[in-house]
Amino acid sequence: MRKDYGYPSLEVIREASAGNETAIKDILKFYDAYICKLCLRPFYYFESGKITMQVDEELKGQIHTEMMKAILKFEIRVK
Fold it and tell me: pTM for the whole thing?
């Protein structure tokens, strides 16, 4: 059985594509957990020899930047 996590509404998407900062932040917040999962990288501690998974903040920032560019280029066409 699939869970329904909902999606950003068409109104939020329309406002974000028009450049509304709040709407863009809402969309980025909606996808934040997925982006964090994509940005997990192994991190090695020299002192203890342990390897842990941590979010690569630089990569996450790059993904956010590219998403904002894509949102602003997005067009909604109605037939």
Answer: 0.80
